[in-house]
Write a structure and sequence with these properties.
The protein has 286 residues and is of the alpha/beta class. It has ten helices and ten strands. Bound molecules: ligand BV8 and zinc ion.
């Protein structure tokens, strides 16, 4: 795949980013696209090709067909583990360091459930929709350590591990569920309830602290970058508007238009893996 051409970064934008004291970087699925993680807009493949992700990522889907939904997450979890951060994640982590070294703060707020920001070195990443690596009991809410071991003695109940129950069974198959399989979710060692991903499904409330920190960050930002998001999922899609109303400079990084344009000062058309390194280099040097 030929690299996208380097975008022209206006001197005024570079200056605004270099002098900004409070920066918010909001990322969506597009930020991980060049790492090989399909976005929600991309059609699903294999077992799930006939489903719309927004239908699968719901408590109703999990209640109706837990094996299908848990199998999807086991496959996605193994996909994330096989992927690596792309230069866009690296540029965001550098931006956070550069702003910090100048006495300011750059907050990374992501809608994504992968850990690529953390693996690229970003600090204190705010996950508005949770993290795919974490699981919890759908009934009692207990955080569950995914050890993926086969059920002890076949009864599906493991001895209680220190600090949170150990889930049994339902772990990632060796091939990570290649093109995807139905996998019965493990059972909670505490109450026997089904284990689910500890992420926010459609129709579920966002973690309060995460949302409040993101909202406050946007309301106090000098610059907000909206990277790789279709700006269609609320309340996350509200953040650039909150920043704009509070007087921040709003920058969009996306190869396509998203409908956020009326609130955007700088619309940088292109892939995050090319645009972000160019933007950060223009502001802070190569
Ligand atoms: C809630 C975890 C209420 C699961 C996800 C108004 C107000 C409040 C709620 C609503 C509202 N209107 C509607 C709602 C309901 C709903 C909603 O927003 N629906 C939408 C579809 C209309 N919102 C909710 O349900 C939220 N909860 O509001 O609860 C409540 C309150 C109290 C008590 C109870 C309930 C919860 C939403 C969270 C859902 N969970 N993820 C999982 O991952 O499996 S959302 C999921 O979809 C992702 O996390 C992501 O956030 C979203 C997809 O959006 P994007 O990240 O933008 O990705 P997308 O594929 O859409 O776009 C990719 C973009 O990247 C594109 O623009 C593309 O051009 C670009 N791109 C591609 N390649 C690149 C690139 N960009 C840069 N570089 C590239 N290389
Ligand atoms: Zn439980």
């Amino acid at each position: 795949m030929t690299a996208a051409p380097e975008p022209e970064i206006a001197g005024e934008l570079a200056e605004a980013l270099r002098t900004a004291r409070r920066v918010v970087v909001l990322t969506g699925a597009g930020a991980s696209a060049e790492s090989g993680i399909p976005t929600f807009r991309d059609a699903l493949t294999g077992l799930w090709e006939r489903y719309d992700p927004a239908q699968l990522a719901t408590p109703e889907a999990f209640a109706a067909d837990p094996d299908l939904v848990w199998g999807w997450y086991v496959w996605r979890r193994s996909l994330v583990a096989r992927c690596r951060p792309n230069p866009g994640h690296g540029a965001i982590a550098r931006l956070q360091r550069e702003v910090g070294e100048r006495g300011g703060g750059a907050m990374v707020v992501t809608q994504n459930v992968d850990d690529l920001h953390e693996r690229a070195g970003a600090q204190d990443v705010i996950h508005l929709h949770g993290a795919i690596a974490q699981s919890r009991c759908a009934d009692c809410g207990e955080k569950v350590r995914e050890d993926g071991a086969e059920p002890a003695g076949g009864d599906g109940h493991a001895e209680r591990a220190q600090g949170g129950g150990a889930a049994q069974g339902g772990g990632a198959p060796r091939d990570g569920g290649a093109e995807g399989r139905r996998i019965p979710p493990p059972r909670c060692a505490g109450c026997g309830g089904p284990v689910r991903p500890a992420i926010v499904w459609f129709g579920e409330a966002l973690p309060q602290v995460a949302w409040r920190r993101a909202e406050e960050g946007a309301a106090n930002a000098d610059v907000l970058l909206s990277v790789g998001t279709s700006s269609t999922v609320y309340p996350a899609a509200e953040l650039p508007h909150i920043a704009r109303r509070a007087g921040a400079r709003v920058v969009q990084v996306n190869p396509s238009s998203t409908g956020l344009e009326p609130a955007v000062h700088d619309d940088l058309r292109g892939p995050a893996g090319t645009v972000l390194p160019a933007l950060v280099a223009a502001a802070f040097g190569p």
